[in-house]
Amino acid sequence: MGMNVGSNQDDEDVMLDVNMTPLIDVMLVLLIMFIITIPLPNNAININLPNGTPPPVQEKPPEIVELRLDVQGKMFWNEQAVESKQALEALFQTVAQKADQDQIKLKADRATEYKYIAMVMAAAQRLDVKKIGVVSNQ
Q1: Which Gene3D superfamilies does the record match to this protein (predicted)?
Q2: pTM, to two decimals
Q3: Cys-Cys crosslink for 116: which of 3, 73, 88, 91, Cβ 3.0 to 4.6 Å?
C-alpha cells in the first residue's frame, strides 16, 4: 500500500486525464455558429442622389488632323505644305475657335530636330489648342 515513486511498473499505473480535443471541437463549432448568427449592424446612410441627365450624343466625331514635320522642319497639314509659322498659327486659331476641337496628331521624322517640334507644341499651347498628341512609329 505504499507509494510507487520512481518504479517502472507501467501496468499498475493508470493515467486519469480528461481528453480536451472533443471539448475544444464543440466549443469552436459553437463559436462559429454564434459568429454566423449575430446580426450585423447596418451602417448605411440614406442619401437622396440627384437625377443626372446623360451627356448629349455627339453627332459626328471630331476631325483628325495630321501635322507632319520632316527633317528640314517643313510642316504639312493633312499633306498640304504649311509655308510659315504664321500660317501654322492661323490654322491653330481656326482649330481653337471650334467648340469641339479637332484632334491634331503630330508626326515627326526620327531625324527632325527637337526645336521644330517644340516650336509647334509651344504655338499650340499659346493658341489654346487642347487636343494635340505626338505619334510615334512604334
Answers
A1: 3.30.420.270
A2: 0.54
A3: 73
Contact by Cβ (8 Å): 87, 46? no
Q: Residue 97's pLDDT is what?
A: 86
Supply 69's cell numbers.
514635320
- 31 by DSSP, 3-state: which? helix
Beta carbons of 119 and 125 less than 8 angstroms apart: no
Q: Coil, helix or strand for 133?
A: strand
Tell me the C-alpha distance between 126 and 120, whole Å.
10
**Residues facing residue 77 across a β-bridge:** 67, 80
User: For residues 67 and 75, what is the distance between their CA atoms, to the nearest angstrom?
Assistant: 7
- Could you give the CA distance from residue 9 to residue 124 in angstroms, rounded to a whole number? 101
pLDDT in tens, 104-126: 898 988 888 888 889 999 998 98
Q: Which residues of the chain are under the pLDDT cut of 50?
A: 1
- Name residue 12's amino acid: E
